[in-house]
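hi support,

uploading two proteins for the ticket. first:
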Amino acid sequence: MPRLAAAPITLSASEQTELETLARRPSTAQQIALRARIILRASRGESHGQISRDLGISKDMSRLWRNRWLEVSVRGIPVMERLRDAPRPGAPATFSLEQITQLYALACAPPEQYGRPISHWTPRELADELVKQGIVAQISERHVGRLLAEAELKPHQSRYWLHPPRQ
């Protein structure tokens, strides 16, 4: 069975120059520089096997970047953008930045201000208060704990509790 030749890549002079610059510049991320080298070699008519041997990569990687380059070149995307990773699939964020900011503000406020008879906030109490105030429809205490840990917020060590204001 005859093999199919790889699709040819034709570069404009500006694309060629930009790819060569990216491939040589020391400050370019290594993955971007490697992808630039793959495209440059593909534009010279090298096969996937030849590119993979010379650059120490798999044929699949050579094929992937040649095909991706051809696919996005049609859209007129800038060279650097064509060499970046494609967006990965996944669920959209569950909570907005505003909702998370409101959680942080709540965690830094004294619980008595919200009628809570506790000395400091716990993830469970914060989750309950967020739902009670209508900031979120629902949120687990574990997620509240993760968000606080991510922001390195520790309501029980809040400055307010270490040095309460005098009245």
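and the second one:
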Amino acid sequence: MNFKYKAVTNTGEKKEGAVDAPSKDLAILALQRRGLIIVSIKGEEEKSVLQISIFEHVPQKEIVILSRQISTLFEAQVSALKAFSLLAANAENKLLKAKLTTVVDDLQAGFSISGALAKHPDVFSDFYVNMVKAGEESGKLNQTFGYLAEYLDRSYELTAKTRNALIYPAFVIFVFFAVMILMFVLVIPKLSAIIVESGQDVPVYTRIVMNISSFFVNYGLFVLIFFLIGVGYVWWLSRKEVGKTYLDNLKLSIPAVGPLFRKLYLSRMADNMDTMLSSGISIVRAIEITGEVVGNKVYALILKDAGEAVKSGASLSDSLAKHQHIPGIMVQMVKVGEETGGLAGILKTLARFYKREVDDAVDTLVSLIEPIMIVTLGLGVGVLLVSVLVPIYNIASSIH
């Protein structure tokens, strides 16, 4: 919550402004730490940030750039307060600018960097905050922000490549169905009328096409409503824990696409844990945080179970071996890492391995889907046209 205040300094200079704090008492304490004598303080809702957040979001690429900038500033021995002030002043994204401004206020109030960032989970994830906290404890903040930038860059590149690879086939499938529906609704009915008026015998395949066309003309609105209800139901299901688990499981089971997603999540798991272990975060905490940011409920539950097992004294490799979604090679590699004391290095190797696997799977998928979709689209339209044009050709021949 924002609090507007009026205050004076020890020299009598008047100050006005706003401070962000969970409560009025903490706001007063923050101002007093700055050496201000409070004249008045009044709370107000954060309307400006709320309004911005409706229309704005902070892309992951901007967080990557931000992390690199912070790392560079810290290496140049710039103080945290000055670094975040500079970044807030130069941020182009309105929401990020508002968040960084609040972080600057919190740093002035005595918050740690991780504590200030933790107040903005929509921009700085639990993984990000815990990495910064580990950097504060080890005194290696510049290295930590460098690790974060590199990790987020890898994650962004991997996710973007996978997403972009699926956009093209999705677009082609959409065009395919759109063309087919337009043919059934606009073209086929007119040609069907000519065929029916001729009184000729209609082939079976033509009758099937004509009946499908008649169905879409008469009941197309109901089909559209049913489709929208289905989309709404899937959206509602995705908001529930059970629904998320079901949909994420379904995502992993889709032929061709499922293995791609599986490798993507395995790469993300290994990369997350490697980055955190390299920064000095405990194995249990690394597993817990990875489960929160892996992006799939199936793997989140696997990591939750693994975290509980490791807390009880079990090894990570043994706890992962219980789950079918974790491949044997990963279990064996983790086991080697545990036995040799080089788990972080093994995880880094696994992350690189699965990233290459994702890259290869994406390239293969795109190279196969493109010709298949084009041929399917051509065949679908061709079959429709042949089904109605052959009878019309017969009609024209009989006239002559």
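thanks. also noticed: The chain has three domains: 2-45, 54-153, 155-400.
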